[in-house]
């Protein structure tokens, strides 16, 4: 049964079908990620009234407009601070930030670092297509060294962020990486993370054939998916060095951290307030 059929059968559809067709290019990977996310939400039986989706700016940022729950399409890089505010105001809600690599790790990079350090109770779905797709294919904070983009026509000199390494080093309790080829693993990972607390990070390597793939010898969605299929290695205990993504190299995927019971920022804050009230 297709997602659309399944959703139609649901009394409360999780898609704003009146807003379709979507803006994404044919073969873009963002739809695969959104599909996996919605299926995981349905499997978890999360009350749509208790789910909030927040995104920033960019191709992935448009996802918030298609989900039929309270959703916020925020300013560039500010998805995480908006989500922190929502969680503070309504700790009973499941708050998910669904955004792209440029949004989360360039202009929003400082928010990511500090929210992870504090262990805010948020699920971060980070779609990494190695480029700024919406604005024409500039290099971004996760573009592999040597990759060709509109702003690096002779190859990218920068070193990209190693997202799982960054998240683990900041103490995030759940960290995983998959590609859009790993649909079942991705859905299972989101399902698992939705049932946990704390700053949970799932990076999804996704194809952008339109502006990234065609400059890097992968002109079609299929050629990018074949690259993911042939070059991904599942290794849950990978070293930080192995998690680095090299241009046209292997992509190590898996579940790299899964630790329960670390107090969240919201729990610590509640605890401080309770103790202060008891002392006064
Ligand atoms: S530009 Fe790239 S990331 Fe954006 S919708 Fe098109 S294929 Fe997807």
Q: What would you say this structure looks like, in words?
A:
The protein has 280 residues and is of the alpha/beta class. The chain has 9 helices and 10 strands. An 8-stranded mixed β-sheet has the order 2-1-3-4-8-7-10-9, sandwiched between helices. It has a two-stranded antiparallel sheet with strand order 5-6. The protein has a single domain, classed as Thiamin diphosphate (ThDP)-binding fold, Pyr/PP domains (Rossmann fold), CATH 3.40.50. It starts with a helix and ends with a helix. The longest helix has 15 residues. Bound molecules: iron/sulfur cluster. The site of iron/sulfur cluster has 12 residues, from loops.
Summary?
The protein is of the alpha/beta class. The chain has nine helices and ten strands.
């Amino acid at each position: 049964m297709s997602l659309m059929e399944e959703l139609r059968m649901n009394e409360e559809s999780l898609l704003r079908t009146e807003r379709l067709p979507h803006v994404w290019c044919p073969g873009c990977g963002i739809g695969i990620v959104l599909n996996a996310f919605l299926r995981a939400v349905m499997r978890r039986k999360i009350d749509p009234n208790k789910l909030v989706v927040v995104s920033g700016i960019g191709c992935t940022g448009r996802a918030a407009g298609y989900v039929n729950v309270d959703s916020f399409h925020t300013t560039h890089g500010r998805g995480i601070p908006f989500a922190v505010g929502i969680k503070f105001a309504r700790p009973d809600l499941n708050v998910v930030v669904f955004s792209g690599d440029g949004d989360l790790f360039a202009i929003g990079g400082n928010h990511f670092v500090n929210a992870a350090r504090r262990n805010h109770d948020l699920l971060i779905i980070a779609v990494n297509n190695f480029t700024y797709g919406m604005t024409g294919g500039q290099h971004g904070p996760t573009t592999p060294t040597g990759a060709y983009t509109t702003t690096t026509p002779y190859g990218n000199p920068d070193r990209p962020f190693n997202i799982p390494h960054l998240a683990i080093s900041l103490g995030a309790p759940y960290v995983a990486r998959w590609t859009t080829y790993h649909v079942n693993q991705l859905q299972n990972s989101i399902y698992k993370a939705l049932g946990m607390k704390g700053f949970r990070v799932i990076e999804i390597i996704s194809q952008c054939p339109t502006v990234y793939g065609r400059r890097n010898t992968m002109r079609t969605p299929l050629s990018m998916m074949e690259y993911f299929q042939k070059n991904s290695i599942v290794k849950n205990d990978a070293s930080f060095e192995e998690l680095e993504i090299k241009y046209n190299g292997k992509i190590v995927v898996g579940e790299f951290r899964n630790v329960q019971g670390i107090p969240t920022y919201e729990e610590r804050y509640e605890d401080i307030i309770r103790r202060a009230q008891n002392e006064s």
